[in-house]
Amino acid sequence: MAYTLSPIDLIPDFIPVLGYLDDVVLLPVLIWLTIRLLPPEVLAESRQKAEQWMLDQGSKPRSVVGGVVVVLIWLAIAMVISLWATGALRR
Q: Residue 70, Cβ neighbours under 10 Å: how many?
Protein backbone atom coordinates (compact mmCIF):
# COMPACT_ATOMS: atom_id res chain seq x y z
CA MET A 1 0.00 0.00 0.00
CA ALA A 2 2.96 2.32 0.50
CA TYR A 3 3.46 2.34 -3.28
CA THR A 4 0.10 4.02 -3.77
CA LEU A 5 1.01 6.78 -1.31
CA SER A 6 4.47 7.35 -2.74
CA PRO A 7 5.01 10.35 -5.03
CA ILE A 8 7.68 8.31 -6.83
CA ASP A 9 6.76 5.52 -9.26
CA LEU A 10 8.99 2.55 -10.00
CA ILE A 11 7.83 2.96 -13.60
CA PRO A 12 7.93 6.74 -14.23
CA ASP A 13 4.95 8.28 -16.00
CA PHE A 14 7.10 9.65 -18.85
CA ILE A 15 7.71 6.12 -20.19
CA PRO A 16 5.08 5.63 -22.93
CA VAL A 17 2.22 3.27 -22.05
CA LEU A 18 4.02 1.48 -19.18
CA GLY A 19 4.31 4.67 -17.13
CA TYR A 20 0.57 5.03 -16.79
CA LEU A 21 -0.33 1.34 -16.92
CA ASP A 22 0.33 0.80 -13.21
CA ASP A 23 -1.58 3.96 -12.30
CA VAL A 24 -4.57 3.34 -14.54
CA VAL A 25 -5.03 -0.42 -14.30
CA LEU A 26 -2.97 -2.10 -11.64
CA LEU A 27 -3.57 0.18 -8.65
CA PRO A 28 -7.37 0.45 -8.92
CA VAL A 29 -7.68 -3.31 -9.37
CA LEU A 30 -5.47 -4.01 -6.36
CA ILE A 31 -7.31 -1.47 -4.20
CA TRP A 32 -10.68 -2.93 -5.22
CA LEU A 33 -9.45 -6.46 -4.50
CA THR A 34 -8.09 -5.43 -1.10
CA ILE A 35 -11.37 -3.80 -0.08
CA ARG A 36 -13.38 -6.81 -1.28
CA LEU A 37 -11.22 -9.25 0.70
CA LEU A 38 -11.26 -7.27 3.95
CA PRO A 39 -13.94 -8.14 6.49
CA PRO A 40 -16.35 -5.18 6.90
CA GLU A 41 -15.52 -4.73 10.60
CA VAL A 42 -11.77 -4.49 9.83
CA LEU A 43 -12.44 -1.92 7.10
CA ALA A 44 -14.64 0.16 9.42
CA GLU A 45 -12.05 0.05 12.21
CA SER A 46 -9.26 1.02 9.81
CA ARG A 47 -11.25 3.96 8.46
CA GLN A 48 -11.91 5.12 12.01
CA LYS A 49 -8.19 4.90 12.86
CA ALA A 50 -7.30 6.84 9.70
CA GLU A 51 -9.78 9.59 10.60
CA GLN A 52 -8.31 9.77 14.11
CA TRP A 53 -4.76 9.96 12.70
CA MET A 54 -5.73 12.86 10.45
CA LEU A 55 -7.33 14.69 13.37
CA ASP A 56 -4.35 14.10 15.67
CA GLN A 57 -1.49 14.67 13.22
CA GLY A 58 -3.06 17.12 10.79
CA SER A 59 -1.30 15.52 7.81
CA LYS A 60 -1.02 12.30 5.87
CA PRO A 61 1.73 9.84 6.85
CA ARG A 62 4.94 9.91 4.80
CA SER A 63 7.53 7.25 4.20
CA VAL A 64 11.04 8.67 3.91
CA VAL A 65 12.52 5.16 3.93
CA GLY A 66 10.25 4.14 1.04
CA GLY A 67 11.34 7.18 -0.97
CA VAL A 68 15.02 6.44 -0.34
CA VAL A 69 14.56 2.81 -1.42
CA VAL A 70 12.92 3.83 -4.70
CA VAL A 71 15.66 6.40 -5.41
CA LEU A 72 18.35 3.79 -4.71
CA ILE A 73 16.67 1.34 -7.09
CA TRP A 74 16.62 3.96 -9.84
CA LEU A 75 20.27 4.86 -9.20
CA ALA A 76 21.25 1.18 -9.44
CA ILE A 77 19.33 0.83 -12.70
CA ALA A 78 20.94 3.99 -14.08
CA MET A 79 24.41 2.71 -13.11
CA VAL A 80 23.85 -0.65 -14.82
CA ILE A 81 22.56 1.06 -17.97
CA SER A 82 25.49 3.48 -18.04
CA LEU A 83 28.02 0.69 -17.51
CA TRP A 84 26.38 -1.32 -20.27
CA ALA A 85 26.29 1.70 -22.59
CA THR A 86 29.99 2.44 -22.05
CA GLY A 87 30.93 -1.18 -22.64
CA ALA A 88 32.11 -1.89 -19.11
CA LEU A 89 29.64 -4.78 -18.79
CA ARG A 90 30.42 -6.31 -22.17
CA ARG A 91 32.89 -9.18 -22.32
A: 18
How far apart, in whole angstroms, are the C-alpha atoms of residue 73 and residue 19? 16
What's this model's pTM, rounded to 2 decimal places?
0.42
- Could you list the beta-strand ranges (E) of 1-91: none
Q: Specify the DSSP class assigned to residue 16.
A: T
Do 72 and 12 touch, CB atoms closer than 8 A?
Answer: no
Number of structural domains in the chain: 1
Q: Which domain covers residue 32, as residue numbers?
A: 2-86
Tens-digit pLDDT profile for residues 78-88: 999 899 888 87
In a domain? residue 73: yes
